[in-house]
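Lab meeting, item 3. Inverse folding demo.
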């Protein structure tokens, strides 16, 4: 059994592995509305693509975690810690929630749980999130989780020949360091 990284009363997070049922994940990554603000939107994906992606994270120091409902162990989304910088004590975070689970608070719960893990277990000082300005849902989620807007990357993301700004959010560890 794969060990949970962190959990609360409703969800748990654990690293995805190559034995997971990836059928829901595959439908999500091929949903153009769900991926409009993500780099993976550029092509149709297969199970083999997902396995390669998961494998690349398993071989790195990244944390590609599935978000699972405790009530039925259903996979409801993913959260990713990447670019973990042990020297400067920061990392990036990204989140992806299946459309059928939007609006239930699972995203903010997962981000808060992972922030707690980053600060208390990994002992990092800062978490960084980049959000395309038009992605109102992600912007609200990170603000709800205590992230603060630190800057705007002008025209850093391109969709359909239009350049969009990226909002850069940060959350600092205010606990014991």
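The presenter then showed the designed sequence:
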């Amino acid at each position: 059994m794969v060990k949970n990284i962190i959990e609360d009363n409703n969800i748990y997070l654990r690293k995805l592995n190559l034995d997971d049922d990836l059928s829901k994940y595959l439908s999500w990554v091929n949903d153009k509305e769900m991926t409009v603000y993500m780099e993976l939107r550029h092509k149709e994906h297969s199970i083999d693509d997902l396995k390669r992606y998961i494998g690349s994270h398993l071989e790195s120091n990244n944390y590609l975690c599935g978000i699972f409902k405790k009530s039925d162990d259903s996979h409801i989304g993913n959260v990713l810690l990447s670019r973990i910088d042990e020297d400067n004590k920061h990392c990036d975070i990204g989140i992806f929630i299946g459309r059928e689970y939007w609006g239930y608070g699972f995203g903010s719960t997962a981000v808060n749980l992972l922030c707690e893990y980053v600060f208390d277990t990994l002992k990092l000082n800062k978490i960084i999130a980049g959000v395309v300005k038009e992605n109102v849902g992600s912007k609200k989620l990170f603000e709800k989780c205590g992230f603060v807007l630190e800057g705007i990357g002008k025209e850093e993301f391109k969709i359909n020949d239009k350049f969009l700004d990226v909002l850069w959010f940060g959350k600092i560890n205010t606990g014991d360091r």
